[in-house]
Amino acid sequence: MNLIPMAGFLIVEQDEGKKVTKGGIIIPDVHQKKGATGKVVAVPEYGYPDIKVGDKVLFAQFSGKDIVVADKNYLVVNYCDIEALVE
After folding, report:
1. Sequence-distant (≥ 6) Cβ neighbours of residue 54 within 8 angstroms
2. Is residue 72, in this structure, part of any structural domain at all?
3. What pLDDT sits at residue 3?
4. Is residue 4 part of a domain?
5. What's the domain range around 51?
6. Cα–Cα dist 3/19, whole Å
7. Total-model pTM
8. What is the pLDDT of residues 14-71, one digit of tens each?
9. What distance in Å separates the CA atoms of residue 73 and residue 58, rounded to the nearest whole number?
10. How many Cβ atoms are within 10 Å of 82's Cβ, its own excluded?
11. What SS3 state is found at 9?
12. Are 37 and 62 in contact (CB under 8 A)?
């Protein structure tokens, strides 16, 4: 299934949170914080000149709507919530 976001939105695959602390303590899934970064997997048909599929972006921590497609988790993020490109 292809996801094509409407104008003003992006589809982002969110980075996983830390699973182990620096000291080696394993963090249970329930207590892991998801990262506020992710890889762009879809942009609207007319796109954005500064963001392309495959770019890594930083977005506002509680932004986006969680969706599941073909057993994969994605976020639908408003373009205005994108704060930076990560290189």
Report:
1. 39, 40
2. yes
3. 82
4. no
5. 9-16+25-86
6. 29
7. 0.76
8. 876 666 667 777 666 554 556 688 999 999 988 788 899 999 999 887 888 888 888 8
9. 17
10. 20
11. strand
12. no
Q: What token pair was written down for 17?
A: 């949170």
Q: Report the distance separating Cα 8 and Cα 47, nearest Å.
A: 9
Q: Does the residue 2 lie in any domain? A: no
73/66 Cα distance (integer angstroms): 7
Instruction: Please determine, for residue 7, whether its predicted confidence score (pLDDT) is greater than 60.
Output: yes
Whole-number Å distance between alpha carbons of 10 and 58: 12
CATH of the domain at 78: 2.30.33.40
Cα–Cα distance measured from residue 51 to residue 77, given in angstroms and rounded to the nearest whole number: 13
The answer to whether residue 1 is domain-embedded is no
Backbone angles phi, psi at 42, to 5 degrees: -160, 140
Single-letter code of the amino acid located at 33: K
* 37-42 and 9-14 beta bridge pairing: antiparallel
Q: Count how many domains the chain has.
A: 1
